Input
Amino acid sequence: MLSEAKHLGLPRVFERLFRAMNCGMGAWVVAPDAQAAEDRLAAVEAFIHATEAALSRFRPDSELSRLNAQAGQPVQVSPLLAELLALALASARQTGGLYDPTMLAALEAAGYDRSFEQLGPVAAERPLTVPTYSWRDVQFDAAIRQVTLPVGVRLDLGGIVKGWAADSAAAMLGEVGGCLVDVGGDLMARGQPVEYPAWPVGVADPRQPDQDLALLMLKDRGVATSGTDYRRWQQGDTVRHHIIDPRTRHPAETDLLSVTIVAPTATQADLHAKVALMLGSVEGRRYLERLPAVEGLLIGEDGSQWQTPGFDQYVYK
Output
């Protein structure tokens, strides 16, 4: 995971720290007017909480949960859910289904059937009775915001919502000044802080989380880390994690412990980090090297490190 960005202590840099989506959140903005900065930071926090309330799979009253409960029926959804669903389906198409928002049943079968802080070190063993549908079977009419899920299929948008929220919040703050938004480890940087050429963000060592592998300097870039090191649990005799491979509908078998991606947006960084992690060290690097303006740092289970040719441009030296 990315280490939390630190407050710079510089004049005219305002910050707001809070919790949402079971994660620490942070927002920093450079502004000449304190009140304008505080008002916009408060609006960002409210936006994050509203996004969680609408899209959390752990809240039975969320709009996403209500949609999942109406599988088999056409449902008109809000502009927020329609935007995220369109993004999810486009991401699935872009990755050839390596990202698939219909993997909720597989995730629950692997034991991740409640909020992570309630899961505990051992999850109950459950039979893997997972529908064989995929993202291609979701019927979505964007013009009228109407969705029909196949019976038995439920959506999980957790794979993209944090990156999207970081991008959206940074757009809100960017109207005030240069900013950095951290949504549970998915970050978006716009502009730069006072007297610095870019925003500093540490990449934590997944094997020693209190230490950083590198310090990145980011300007108008998003960054995200996906890993099997944090959200993992024991299910019977097997160690599970939350990255589901749609090809097998099981937690991905990979030789990578974590992948950190720098991309034009946090949404892209989040998506490509998950796909590269799933593909492993060899195919993951090939996948990343085919993507324009996307760079990555890959950490193997044995501590080995690989990076794409352009990743070094973001590393502070």
